[in-house]
Write a structure and sequence with these properties.
CATH architecture: 3-Layer(aba) Sandwich
Strand order of the largest sheet: 2-3-1-4-5
Bound molecules: adenosine-5'-diphosphate, ligand DP6
CATH superfamily: P-loop containing nucleotide triphosphate hydrolases
CATH class: Alpha Beta
Oligomer: single chain
Shape: globular
Strand content: 5-15%
Distance between the termini: 20 Å
Helix content: 40-55%
Number of helices: 10
CATH topology: Rossmann fold
Largest sheet: 5 strands, parallel
Number of domains: 1
Length: 209
Amino acid sequence: MEDRASEPELVLVFSGKRKSGKDYVTNLIRDRLGSEVCCILRLSGPLKLQYAQEHGLDLDELLGPGPYKEQYRADMIQWGETRRRQDPGFFCRLATRGARQPVWVVSDARRLSDLQWFWSEFPRQTRCVRIQSSEKTRKQRGWSFTAGVDDAESECGLDSGVEFDWVITNEADAPSLEEQLEPILKMATEAVSPSSSSSSSSSINALNH
Ligand SMILES: Nc1ncnc2c1ncn2[C@@H]1O[C@H](COP(=O)(O)OP(=O)(O)O)[C@@H](O)[C@H]1O
Ligand SMILES: C[C@@](O)(CCOP(=O)(O)OP(=O)(O)O)CC(=O)O
């Protein structure tokens, strides 16, 4: 167990393929809850920081949405795998260090070991959310298949074998994100102020994975 000043009330762990809209949807949630209540944690943050330092790269570009990070993605994946093999919780621990808000939104889980770390550290608070979009939509957002990336664990590690608490379809012809995110936002609101609703945190905690 980590040494923490305080524990989160709710940990929403998001996953989804490239260009499914993980950043878009998690930003929406953070904006709705406010940055005092909710923080976005990226497992790729500490990975990119250390990778940039070791390889003399531009960290801001690596963190940004542009094409720069794509040049290094396959190598970053390999580099990260080596670290994870030694210590599967390495990036999870670094990404969550110092987070103070009651609701954590982890925007980029990719492997079962990522989910296992959160389930093990925060069994009561952790919920898993999958973002899905069709290949057609992802292509319209700039995705194209890259061997060694889109067929690797980084993109496929959570394709099966996980029972997600929610699956969000981020498509123009799906129900609105507003509608789909409603139960998640409700749970977050109740988690931070349990007395404001008839549903107490104990009933939230009683939900199974
Ligand atoms: N529902 C949406 N409406 C409008 N634009 C979207 C939507 N979902 C994603 N996008 C856009 O598609 C692109 C990819 O989304 P992003 O959140 O960066 O995906 P990911 O983090 O999964 O790779 C971004 O430019 C983003 O703004
Ligand atoms: C090496 C990575 O951490 C790179 C992740 O970069 P981003 O989190 O920026 O990816 P997308 O939002 O899906 O485009 C992947 C990994 O396997 O750890």
